[in-house]
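Exercise 7.
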Amino acid sequence: MFCTRYTQKDWHQRLGFGVHADAIMDHIVHNTIWVETGGHNMREHTVGKVTA
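Solution. The predicted structure, written as tokens, is:
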């Protein structure tokens, strides 16, 4: 399971393109079920709601 706030289309760029990025993406992408969460940022969502 991979959890990230970046969309699938942005991963290759963030991995630096090139051969290494291709190899990593090949291992991650094939036979994977992607669940898009809609881009919500829970840190922004909970600002001011957490008390210490």
